[in-house]
Amino acid sequence: MDHKIIIITAPSGAGKTTIVRRLLAELPQLAFSISASTRAPRENEVHGRDYYFLSTDEFHQHIEANDFAEYEMVYVGKYYGTLKSELQRIWDLGKVPMVDIDVKGAVSIKEKYQQAALTIFIQPPSLEALRERLSERGTETQASLEERLAKARYELSFAPEFDEIVLNDDLEKAYATVKALVLNFI
Ligand SMILES: Nc1nc2c(ncn2[C@@H]2O[C@H](COP(=O)(O)OP(=O)(O)O)[C@@H](O)[C@H]2O)c(=O)[nH]1
Ligand SMILES: Nc1ncnc2c1ncn2[C@@H]1O[C@H](COP(=O)(O)OP(=O)(O)O)[C@@H](O)[C@H]1O
């Protein structure tokens, strides 16, 4: 039987990380799929926990070796990707990988693991709400905030490609909905 995989995607700021962290804390059957990335670590982020932080050269070597289940240049000059070895590491633990990736990456990984995948799109209430959440999170410069919002506009049109669309207006409601979907799937 195919191994299961859960893919959660959303425009930046929609609340995916918040929801995924809670699920992981509550459901020991899941494990976070640690992505590789060439972006700089934020304060508090740890290599091998939040991301595998790689140089662009290292990332290119993995592309050439066909090591990725999917990868994208999510923001200008910044690569993000899911290593096949990471999914295998989690399946070897007898757990289900929880993959938190951008919308294009989610579409491509879904095609690859179709039968065994649950795909969830977290929908923000509006672009204005996204702007507020990203500003309040305090992780973006004016330029990176605008880049994320421009990308979000485009990504919202992909929502119908996914198995489930969950509106994250009220966080508690959104979380309960996602949790029920995940429990039903695993
Ligand atoms: N395609 C792809 N996207 C990823 C991967 N890992 C993270 N991302 C996405 O890259 C985007 C930027 O992530 P990050 O810089 O951590 O900022 P965030 O928007 O605060 O989560 C988010 O949309 C992530 O879901 C990956 O392995 N592959
Ligand atoms: N329903 C919600 N209402 C208001 N703020 C929220 C809600 N869900 C998440 N947030 C906040 O919005 C910001 C972006 O959420 P985050 O989980 O980092 O998003 P993403 O991982 O999708 O970029 C965070 O500061 C988070 O605390």
TrEMBL record:
User: Per its UniProt record, what SUPFAM superfamilies does this chain match?
Assistant: P-loop containing nucleoside triphosphate hydrolases (SSF52540)
Which keywords has UniProt assigned to this entry?
ATP-binding, Cytoplasm, Kinase, Nucleotide-binding, Transferase
Q: Which residues bind ATP?
A: A10, P11, S12, G13, A14, G15, K16, T17
Spell out the InterPro entries in the cross-references. GK/Ca_channel_bsu (IPR008145), Guanylate_kin-like_dom (IPR008144), Guanylate_kinase (IPR017665), Guanylate_kinase_CS (IPR020590), P-loop_NTPase (IPR027417)
Q: Can you tell which superkingdom this protein's organism belongs to?
A: Bacteria
Span of domain Guanylate kinase-like: 3-183
GO MF annotations, alphabetized: ATP binding; GMP kinase activity
Reactions listed under catalytic activity: GMP + ATP = GDP + ADP
Under Enzyme Commission nomenclature, its number is: 2.7.4.8
Write out the annotated subcellular location: Cytoplasm
Q: Which GO terms of the cellular component aspect does the record hold?
A: cytosol
Family from the record: Belongs to the guanylate kinase family.
Q: Which HAMAP family match?
A: Guanylate_kinase
Its function? Answer: Essential for recycling GMP and indirectly, cGMP.
Q: What is this protein called?
A: Guanylate kinase
